[in-house]
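Q&A FORM
Asked by: J.P.
Topic: structure of Neutral/alkaline non-lysosomal ceramidase N-terminal domain-containing protein

PROVIDED:
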Amino acid sequence: MRALRWTVMALVLAFQASICSAQAPLGSSQVSLQAGAAKLDITPDKKDWPPHIEGVLDPVHVRALVLDDGKTRAAMVTVDSVALTTESWDHITAAAERELHIPRKQFLLSASHSHSAFFKGEAFEKQVLTALREAAVKLEPATVSYGTGRSYINVNRNMVDKQSHQWREGPNYDGPSDKTVAVLRFSNIDGTPIAVYYNYAVHGVVTGMLDQFSGDIPGVTSDYIENALGDDAVALWSMGAAGDQNPIFFQQTYDLRAIRVANFAKKGEDISNSMPPGGQGLNKNNPVIAKLFDQQKQMVNTYGQMLGEEVLHVLRANMERPQASADLEGVQESVTCPGRTRTDSGRAGHPGTYVDGKPVDIRLGVLRIGDTIIGAVDAELFTMIGQRFKRESPYKHTILATLTNGASSSGYIPDEAAFGYNTFEVLSSKVKPGCAEGAIVNGLLDLINETDQMERAD
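REPLIED BY: S.T.
REPLY: Here is the structure written out as tokens.
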């Protein structure tokens, strides 16, 4: 019995020692990976506001992370924007490759998908490059670690109305929804965070009707994480497969929608099966609407705190052992699917009619950081496509970043089963059924295999 007690004690001490070893600072001689991050406020001056913008709810940013493994570089950039054009992607990556020696194939430029901001053009592209330069200047020895958690602030947004028995937008608590929060932490040799790259599947639509600049859920969450970590740490969001995922409590689909439909009806317009952008048709001076808008402002902060706290929980408790050496490998390609053009109208509820359209190109990418895979797609995907990719990936640590590296002409990309739903995402999709899900998943898996071959060749 005494021998058994000593054996158990030895095992406990060995386990504690391993934990301490995993968390202990590393000397610079042990580290080959370098990381540097920067954050830049890109909120436009009032004179440059678009006509529909009436104010600033919270500042919007570009966040940049540059990595160097001693042989090559990679970059991840997130912009508080509903989308980023392929033209901007081309200009930014060409300049970054030329000036900062970051290969285009190892560049992830992601839109946060906040519906309260949109950026493009030369001035914006210069701002992104400024952030990249600042991040590159800050390169220092670093470690990388991976962890996951779960957040319940999203919900499948396609439901069948109980009265009309037709598809419409609304919370479907039984529908497929990926709750995974994936987190990559980059720290210096003393363990101080340099950057956090996190991924979650939810639309940034809470503030979209306010007609004010806002980073919405992604921006507020990143601000919350950065404030908690301090010391200039930068938190970069990437959107998972959120094409059919809304915030779980989304006022736009309830009272505000009903008010707007009634207001348009008074003018002889039926928008019951459409959705005008922003806050069109709403009198913001009406006390009822003002109260609902105030609730939206509170809600986006609630979501940001809840998701931010889950990221912080992962950082505290769920991170795997930090790696001081992580080879960088990246590769990209495009796949093409048959296209279609819709010939009728209506947001949801009835089958659409179509004629053949132009083929649709979809840009795919894979960035491997050590034993972590980040897949990239330049479109909005339904959650089941993302879940299938992560399930079939040969890597335990697999992330899918959508709306990354430009903007496909596809519109939403449903999974094959969802093409049978008369939802607004399916009806507006410009790809024919039978191609995109398989082309994306298999294409990404082929790219993973290609990075493996590149690593073996090194």
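FOLLOW-UP: Residues 1-24 have pLDDT under 50 and may be disordered.
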